[in-house]
Protein backbone atom coordinates (compact mmCIF):
# COMPACT_ATOMS: atom_id res chain seq x y z
CA UNK A 1 0.00 0.00 0.00
CA UNK A 2 1.28 3.39 -0.99
CA UNK A 3 1.76 5.96 1.72
CA UNK A 4 -0.29 9.13 1.32
CA UNK A 5 1.50 12.41 1.88
CA UNK A 6 5.10 12.89 0.79
CA UNK A 7 7.35 15.89 1.52
CA UNK A 8 10.36 16.22 -0.77
CA UNK A 9 12.98 18.84 0.10
CA UNK A 10 15.02 20.42 -2.70
CA UNK A 11 12.55 19.68 -5.50
CA UNK A 12 13.83 22.39 -7.85
CA UNK A 13 16.33 20.19 -9.70
CA UNK A 14 17.91 16.73 -9.72
CA UNK A 15 16.60 13.79 -7.69
CA UNK A 16 14.08 16.01 -5.90
CA UNK A 17 12.56 17.21 -9.16
CA UNK A 18 12.34 13.70 -10.63
CA UNK A 19 10.73 12.41 -7.45
CA UNK A 20 8.24 15.30 -7.48
CA UNK A 21 7.29 14.72 -11.14
CA UNK A 22 6.67 11.02 -10.52
CA UNK A 23 4.82 11.50 -7.23
CA UNK A 24 2.63 14.18 -8.83
CA UNK A 25 1.39 11.57 -11.30
CA UNK A 26 0.69 8.81 -8.75
CA UNK A 27 -2.85 8.07 -7.63
CA UNK A 28 -3.73 8.80 -4.01
CA UNK A 29 -0.57 10.72 -3.27
CA UNK A 30 -0.41 14.21 -1.83
CA UNK A 31 2.83 15.94 -2.62
CA UNK A 32 4.49 18.70 -0.68
CA UNK A 33 7.24 19.88 -3.00
CA UNK A 34 9.69 22.51 -1.84
CA UNK A 35 12.08 24.98 -3.39
CA UNK A 36 14.10 27.91 -2.11
CA UNK A 37 12.55 30.42 -4.50
CA UNK A 38 9.08 31.06 -5.82
CA UNK A 39 8.34 29.85 -9.34
CA UNK A 40 10.88 27.00 -9.28
CA UNK A 41 8.18 24.33 -9.02
CA UNK A 42 5.92 25.57 -11.80
CA UNK A 43 6.78 22.43 -13.76
CA UNK A 44 4.36 20.66 -11.38
CA UNK A 45 1.32 22.79 -12.28
CA UNK A 46 0.35 20.56 -15.21
CA UNK A 47 -0.18 17.63 -12.79
CA UNK A 48 -1.97 19.58 -10.06
CA UNK A 49 -5.56 18.62 -9.31
CA UNK A 50 -5.53 19.81 -5.72
CA UNK A 51 -3.03 17.24 -4.42
CA UNK A 52 0.11 19.37 -4.67
CA UNK A 53 1.36 21.90 -2.15
CA UNK A 54 4.33 24.03 -3.22
CA UNK A 55 6.29 25.44 -0.29
CA UNK A 56 9.21 27.82 -0.05
CA UNK A 57 11.84 26.03 1.99
CA UNK A 58 15.47 26.70 2.72
CA UNK A 59 16.28 23.89 5.13
CA UNK A 60 18.71 26.13 7.03
CA UNK A 61 15.81 28.43 8.00
CA UNK A 62 13.99 27.02 10.99
CA UNK A 63 10.87 29.19 10.51
CA UNK A 64 10.47 27.85 6.95
CA UNK A 65 10.96 24.28 8.16
CA UNK A 66 8.20 24.75 10.75
CA UNK A 67 5.86 26.48 8.28
CA UNK A 68 6.34 23.77 5.64
CA UNK A 69 5.56 20.97 8.07
CA UNK A 70 2.59 22.82 9.61
CA UNK A 71 1.13 23.65 6.20
CA UNK A 72 1.50 20.05 5.07
CA UNK A 73 -0.41 18.73 8.07
CA UNK A 74 -3.05 21.47 7.87
CA UNK A 75 -3.70 20.74 4.24
CA UNK A 76 -3.38 16.96 4.03
CA UNK A 77 -3.80 15.75 7.63
CA UNK A 78 -0.68 13.58 7.80
CA UNK A 79 2.93 13.27 6.74
CA UNK A 80 3.68 9.75 5.64
CA UNK A 81 6.99 10.03 3.83
CA UNK A 82 9.68 12.63 4.40
CA UNK A 83 12.40 12.74 1.75
CA UNK A 84 15.41 14.69 3.00
CA UNK A 85 16.92 15.25 -0.41
CA UNK A 86 18.13 18.87 -0.31
CA UNK A 87 21.91 18.98 -0.35
CA UNK A 88 25.02 20.33 -1.94
CA UNK A 89 28.71 19.56 -2.29
CA UNK A 90 32.08 21.17 -1.82
CA UNK A 91 35.40 20.20 -3.39
CA UNK A 92 38.78 21.17 -1.96
CA UNK A 93 41.64 19.46 -0.15
CA UNK A 94 41.20 19.27 3.61
CA UNK A 95 43.92 21.88 4.26
CA UNK A 96 42.93 24.33 1.55
CA UNK A 97 39.15 24.19 1.95
CA UNK A 98 37.21 27.31 2.82
CA UNK A 99 35.75 26.51 6.23
CA UNK A 100 32.79 28.84 5.73
CA UNK A 101 31.81 26.79 2.68
CA UNK A 102 32.36 23.57 4.61
CA UNK A 103 30.29 24.76 7.57
CA UNK A 104 27.47 25.97 5.32
CA UNK A 105 27.40 22.53 3.70
CA UNK A 106 27.03 20.96 7.16
CA UNK A 107 24.19 23.42 7.83
CA UNK A 108 22.34 22.18 4.76
CA UNK A 109 23.27 18.49 4.48
CA UNK A 110 23.25 17.67 8.19
CA UNK A 111 21.51 20.31 10.30
CA UNK A 112 18.82 20.99 7.69
CA UNK A 113 18.04 17.29 7.53
CA UNK A 114 18.05 17.12 11.32
CA UNK A 115 15.68 20.10 11.64
CA UNK A 116 13.20 18.67 9.12
CA UNK A 117 13.30 15.26 10.74
CA UNK A 118 12.76 16.61 14.27
CA UNK A 119 9.72 18.58 13.09
CA UNK A 120 8.20 15.58 11.32
CA UNK A 121 9.01 12.81 13.80
CA UNK A 122 6.42 13.80 16.45
CA UNK A 123 3.74 13.71 13.75
CA UNK A 124 4.84 10.27 12.60
CA UNK A 125 4.98 9.03 16.20
CA UNK A 126 1.40 10.21 16.76
CA UNK A 127 0.32 8.44 13.58
CA UNK A 128 2.37 5.40 14.59
CA UNK A 129 3.59 5.25 11.00
CA UNK A 130 5.93 7.00 8.64
CA UNK A 131 8.96 6.66 6.43
CA UNK A 132 12.05 8.86 6.49
CA UNK A 133 14.18 8.73 3.37
CA UNK A 134 17.54 10.40 3.82
CA UNK A 135 19.85 11.20 0.93
CA UNK A 136 23.38 10.18 1.77
CA UNK A 137 25.78 9.17 -1.01
CA UNK A 138 28.35 6.50 -1.77
CA UNK A 139 30.35 9.35 -0.23
CA UNK A 140 28.66 8.44 3.06
CA UNK A 141 30.42 5.06 2.98
CA UNK A 142 33.60 5.60 0.99
CA UNK A 143 35.94 8.59 0.82
CA UNK A 144 37.70 10.33 -2.05
CA UNK A 145 40.38 13.02 -1.88
CA UNK A 146 39.10 16.64 -2.04
CA UNK A 147 35.73 15.74 -0.55
CA UNK A 148 36.65 15.37 3.12
CA UNK A 149 34.00 17.80 4.35
CA UNK A 150 31.31 16.45 2.03
CA UNK A 151 32.09 12.99 3.39
CA UNK A 152 31.84 14.42 6.88
CA UNK A 153 28.27 15.52 6.13
CA UNK A 154 27.22 12.27 4.54
CA UNK A 155 28.87 9.98 7.13
CA UNK A 156 26.97 12.08 9.66
CA UNK A 157 23.73 11.45 7.78
CA UNK A 158 24.49 7.72 7.82
CA UNK A 159 25.15 7.58 11.55
CA UNK A 160 22.21 9.78 12.49
CA UNK A 161 19.85 7.82 10.23
CA UNK A 162 20.98 4.42 11.49
CA UNK A 163 20.46 5.52 15.07
CA UNK A 164 17.00 7.01 14.37
CA UNK A 165 16.05 3.72 12.70
CA UNK A 166 16.86 1.86 15.92
CA UNK A 167 14.98 4.36 18.09
CA UNK A 168 11.84 4.31 15.94
CA UNK A 169 11.60 0.76 14.70
CA UNK A 170 8.99 -0.17 17.32
CA UNK A 171 7.04 3.04 16.68
CA UNK A 172 5.98 2.17 13.14
CA UNK A 173 8.57 4.46 11.59
CA UNK A 174 11.07 3.26 9.01
CA UNK A 175 14.25 4.83 7.72
CA UNK A 176 15.87 4.33 4.33
CA UNK A 177 19.26 5.84 3.43
CA UNK A 178 19.85 6.50 -0.27
CA UNK A 179 23.47 6.17 -1.43
CA UNK A 180 23.85 7.23 -5.06
CA UNK A 181 27.07 7.26 -7.05
CA UNK A 182 27.38 9.86 -9.83
CA UNK A 183 23.99 10.93 -11.22
CA UNK A 184 23.02 13.47 -13.88
CA UNK A 185 21.94 16.31 -11.63
CA UNK A 186 23.32 19.77 -10.81
CA UNK A 187 25.28 18.40 -7.85
CA UNK A 188 28.81 18.21 -9.32
CA UNK A 189 28.28 21.45 -11.25
CA UNK A 190 26.53 24.50 -9.83
CA UNK A 191 25.63 22.83 -6.52
CA UNK A 192 29.26 22.24 -5.49
CA UNK A 193 31.63 25.10 -4.76
CA UNK A 194 35.22 24.25 -5.62
CA UNK A 195 38.54 25.40 -4.23
CA UNK A 196 41.31 24.38 -6.60
CA UNK A 197 44.48 23.16 -4.88
CA UNK A 198 47.37 25.60 -5.23
CA UNK A 199 49.97 24.02 -2.94
CA UNK A 200 52.51 21.88 -4.80
CA UNK A 201 51.85 18.96 -2.48
CA UNK A 202 48.17 18.90 -3.49
CA UNK A 203 48.20 20.11 -7.12
CA UNK A 204 47.73 16.57 -8.41
CA UNK A 205 44.14 16.62 -7.07
CA UNK A 206 43.05 19.48 -9.36
CA UNK A 207 42.44 16.89 -12.07
CA UNK A 208 39.91 15.05 -9.91
CA UNK A 209 37.99 18.25 -9.17
CA UNK A 210 38.01 19.35 -12.82
CA UNK A 211 36.88 15.94 -14.06
CA UNK A 212 33.94 16.05 -11.64
CA UNK A 213 33.01 19.54 -12.80
CA UNK A 214 33.28 18.59 -16.47
CA UNK A 215 31.50 15.30 -15.88
CA UNK A 216 28.43 16.97 -14.42
CA UNK A 217 25.33 15.79 -16.29
CA UNK A 218 27.36 13.02 -17.99
CA UNK A 219 27.43 10.59 -15.05
CA UNK A 220 26.14 7.04 -15.40
CA UNK A 221 23.26 7.51 -12.96
CA UNK A 222 19.81 8.46 -14.26
CA UNK A 223 17.87 10.43 -11.62
CA UNK A 224 14.53 9.56 -13.23
CA UNK A 225 15.28 5.85 -12.74
CA UNK A 226 16.40 6.56 -9.18
CA UNK A 227 13.09 8.30 -8.44
CA UNK A 228 11.12 5.33 -9.76
CA UNK A 229 13.20 2.88 -7.71
CA UNK A 230 12.67 4.88 -4.50
CA UNK A 231 8.89 5.17 -5.02
CA UNK A 232 8.66 1.46 -5.94
CA UNK A 233 10.57 0.50 -2.78
CA UNK A 234 8.01 2.38 -0.67
CA UNK A 235 5.12 0.93 -2.68
CA UNK A 236 6.27 -2.67 -2.78
CA UNK A 237 8.64 -3.21 0.13
CA UNK A 238 7.07 -1.30 2.96
CA UNK A 239 7.60 -4.23 5.33
CA UNK A 240 11.19 -4.92 4.35
CA UNK A 241 12.45 -1.50 3.37
CA UNK A 242 16.27 -1.65 3.24
CA UNK A 243 18.06 0.63 5.71
CA UNK A 244 20.64 1.33 3.01
CA UNK A 245 20.07 1.52 -0.72
CA UNK A 246 23.12 2.21 -2.90
CA UNK A 247 21.99 3.45 -6.33
CA UNK A 248 24.16 2.96 -9.39
CA UNK A 249 26.60 0.11 -10.19
CA UNK A 250 29.61 2.16 -9.10
CA UNK A 251 27.99 2.79 -5.75
CA UNK A 252 27.09 -0.78 -4.92
CA UNK A 253 30.40 -2.19 -6.24
CA UNK A 254 32.37 0.37 -4.24
CA UNK A 255 30.32 -0.33 -1.11
CA UNK A 256 30.85 -4.09 -1.41
CA UNK A 257 34.58 -3.61 -1.96
CA UNK A 258 34.91 -1.19 0.96
CA UNK A 259 33.13 -3.52 3.36
CA UNK A 260 35.13 -6.56 2.18
CA UNK A 261 38.38 -4.68 2.84
CA UNK A 262 37.14 -3.34 6.16
CA UNK A 263 36.09 -6.83 7.24
CA UNK A 264 39.52 -8.18 6.38
CA UNK A 265 41.22 -5.36 8.28
CA UNK A 266 39.09 -5.94 11.39
CA UNK A 267 39.82 -9.67 11.25
CA UNK A 268 43.57 -9.15 10.70
CA UNK A 269 43.79 -6.95 13.79
CA UNK A 270 41.32 -8.91 15.89
CA UNK A 271 43.84 -9.92 18.55
CA UNK A 272 45.22 -6.40 18.90
CA UNK A 273 41.72 -4.95 19.12
CA UNK A 274 40.57 -7.36 21.81
CA UNK A 275 43.81 -6.96 23.80
CA UNK A 276 42.67 -3.45 24.79
CA UNK A 277 40.03 -4.78 27.20
CA UNK A 278 40.47 -5.62 30.86
CA UNK A 279 40.75 -9.40 31.23
CA UNK A 280 37.30 -10.99 31.64
CA UNK A 281 36.59 -12.05 35.20
N1 LIG B 1 24.03 13.73 -8.15
C1 LIG B 1 24.89 12.95 -7.57
O1 LIG B 1 25.81 12.46 -8.19
C2 LIG B 1 24.71 12.64 -6.10
C3 LIG B 1 25.38 11.51 -5.60
C4 LIG B 1 25.22 11.18 -4.26
C5 LIG B 1 24.38 11.93 -3.46
N2 LIG B 1 23.73 13.02 -3.98
C6 LIG B 1 22.84 13.77 -3.09
O2 LIG B 1 21.56 13.88 -3.67
C7 LIG B 1 20.88 14.97 -3.09
C8 LIG B 1 20.19 15.80 -4.16
O3 LIG B 1 21.14 16.41 -4.97
P1 LIG B 1 21.09 16.34 -6.56
O4 LIG B 1 22.11 15.38 -6.99
O5 LIG B 1 19.71 16.15 -7.02
O6 LIG B 1 21.67 17.79 -6.93
P2 LIG B 1 20.95 19.15 -7.41
O7 LIG B 1 20.38 18.98 -8.77
O8 LIG B 1 21.97 20.19 -7.19
O9 LIG B 1 19.74 19.32 -6.41
C9 LIG B 1 19.93 19.71 -5.09
C10 LIG B 1 18.68 20.42 -4.61
O10 LIG B 1 18.89 20.79 -3.23
C11 LIG B 1 18.47 22.13 -3.10
N3 LIG B 1 19.11 22.85 -1.99
C12 LIG B 1 20.40 23.25 -1.86
N4 LIG B 1 20.57 23.94 -0.73
C13 LIG B 1 19.34 23.99 -0.12
C14 LIG B 1 18.85 24.56 1.08
N5 LIG B 1 19.64 25.25 1.89
N6 LIG B 1 17.53 24.41 1.36
C15 LIG B 1 16.72 23.72 0.54
N7 LIG B 1 17.12 23.17 -0.62
C16 LIG B 1 18.42 23.30 -0.94
C17 LIG B 1 18.81 22.79 -4.41
O11 LIG B 1 18.06 23.99 -4.53
P3 LIG B 1 18.52 25.17 -5.50
O12 LIG B 1 18.10 24.72 -6.86
O13 LIG B 1 17.80 26.38 -4.98
O14 LIG B 1 20.02 25.31 -5.38
C18 LIG B 1 18.42 21.71 -5.40
O15 LIG B 1 17.05 21.77 -5.72
C19 LIG B 1 21.91 15.75 -2.29
O16 LIG B 1 21.74 15.46 -0.91
C20 LIG B 1 23.23 15.20 -2.80
O17 LIG B 1 24.26 15.30 -1.83
C21 LIG B 1 23.89 13.38 -5.27
From TrEMBL:
Keyword Oxidoreductase: yes
InterPro entries: NAD(P)-bd_dom_sf, SDR_fam, SDR_oxidoreductase
Alphabetically ordered keywords of this record: Oxidoreductase
Keyword Oxidoreductase set for record: yes
Example of a GO MF term: oxidoreductase activity
Pfam families: adh_short
Family: Belongs to the short-chain dehydrogenases/reductases (SDR) family.
Name of the protein in question: SDR family NAD(P)-dependent oxidoreductase
Originating organism: Limosilactobacillus albertensis
Lineage per the UniProt record: Bacteria, Bacillati, Bacillota, Bacilli, Lactobacillales
Amino acid sequence: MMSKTWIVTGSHTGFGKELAIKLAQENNINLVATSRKKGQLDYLDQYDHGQIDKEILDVTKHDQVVTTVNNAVKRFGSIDVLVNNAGLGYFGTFEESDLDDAKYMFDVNVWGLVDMTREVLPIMRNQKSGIIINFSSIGGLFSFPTLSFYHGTKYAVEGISESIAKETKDLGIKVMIIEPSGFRTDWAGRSSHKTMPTHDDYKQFAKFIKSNEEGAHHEAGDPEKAAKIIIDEVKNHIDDLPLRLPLGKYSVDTAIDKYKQALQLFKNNYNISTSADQPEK
